[in-house]
Amino acid sequence: MAQTWLVVGLGNPGPDYERTRHNIGRRALAEVERRASATPKRHGRAQALVAESRVIGGPKVVTAFPTSWMNRSGGPVAQLMDFYGVDPEHVIVLHDELDLPLGTVRLKQGGGHGGHNGMRDIIAARGGDVLRVRLGVGRPPGRQDPADFVLKPFAKAEQEEAELLVQLGADAVERIVAEGFTEAQQRIHAPS
Q: What residues does the record give for site: Stabilizes the basic form of H active site to accept a proton (predicted)?
């Protein structure tokens, strides 16, 4: 039987944060769920909304949005990994990335948190071997504080690029599950 995949979209809960840069991982996760016709529900043992689906002819995929604050994502992720028996190499985390230009998607396995507090907490709870779909939201202009920048919505002129980024993030998850991490990484990182 194929290994279950756990796909986690990072963000902060509540309508005030829904359209912010920091929640682009959550938005991409919602697109994965929409494509799979998966309806998230509260999980009984973890602070998260989860949905279960299957890739056609393939493995079970559990999508999860921790309902804790971003910087407290590690506990819910660890609980879901234990509950579903998922190994770190079958965990995909979608998150915003300041160090990538807006609209850029990069895949990464393992490594440090790079200053991302959600990843910092997941690494503290479970180690850094999870797979990541890093969704570029760009750097703040001038001397704007990065923490303030990620908690603001995309500018009107960036909305189309942000919507495309959501689609590309969902595409990346589908490729990883269907083709494997290395193949997906080669395709996504290939020059256009």
A: 96
